[in-house]
Amino acid sequence: MLQPITLILLLGSYDPQTRFYLENVKEEIAKHFSGENLYTLLLDNVEIYYVDTFQVLAELFNKDMVTLLVFQDSRLIDTYDVALKNGLDETVYGFLKEKYDVKRITKESIFNKFNSLMRITKSIFLIRDKEETRGGEYVELLHALFQGHSSKVWFLKREGIQLSAMLMEYLDKFKVNMRTYNNQEDLITAIMRILKYELPSK
Q1: What is the pLDDT of residues 41-51, one digit of tens each?
Q2: Helix (H, G, I), strand (E, B) or coil at 33
Q3: Sheet with 75-83, side-by-side order of all strands
């Protein structure tokens, strides 16, 4: 039976501290919304594959395991935890060939993967925790805005981080929701409060 699925996308720098925060936010969301077909994704942990009749979102849990979400038209068909063998692409293809008798799969490019995820996610949280990182999340932020997803974006930055005048112009122009936080506890509390109202049926 097809089931509705809700996806949350987390964006941020992958310096050790921000990555730690992202992983903890993901874990807290999973605990709070356990059993409700809500999945929180980190962009660089996910790949999307297309088959003729369905799509597969592959999320790397660790170096040994991958979770496959099989869905049609944003509705979940099934989930599988699969042992990682001979690389991600080979693992996904081998499993789908055995389970669904697929003949070929197509993997999304990084650019198209990001576009696809933005289209199907309910909310996008972008976290800016440190000033000395390269700021790749700003590129992702602007891309999300230019693709028309500003209403989904929540920009959360650590208190005291300065934003350029140009970035503020874009945030104001696209009416991006902004929050500040002081520590990890503040960050998690803010995101949980937002989701409480974003997902009232949960």
Answers
A1: 999 899 999 99
A2: coil
A3: 3-4, 75-83, 65-72, 55-60, 46-50, 106-107
Name 181's bridge partners: 158
Domain segments of the chain as ranges: 3-198
pTM: 0.91
Please name the residue that has the structure tokens 């389970």.
Answer: 99
> Over the stretch 91-141, which tens digit does the pLDDT of each residue have?
999 999 999 999 999 999 999 999 999 998 999 999 999 887 677 889 999
80 neighbors 68 (Cβ within 8 angstroms): yes
Please provide the average confidence, as pLDDT, over all residues in the chain.
91
Please state whether beta strands 6-12 and 38-42 pair in parallel, antiparallel, or not at all (unpaired). parallel
CATH number of 3-198: 3.40.50.450
Q: pLDDT > 70: what percent of the chain?
A: 96
171's enclosing H/E stretch is helix 165-173
Q: What does the angle CA 4 – CA 114 – CA 60 come to, to the nearest 5 degrees? A: 70
DSSP for 60-104 reads E-SSSEEEEEEEETTEEEEEEEEE--SSHHHHHHHHHHHHH--S-
Token pair 């720098």: residue: 13
Count CB-CB contacts under 10 A for residue 152: 19
Residue 141 has which token pair? 């932020």
Going from the C-alpha of 30 to that of each of 26, 109, 133, the distances in angstroms are 6, 27, 27
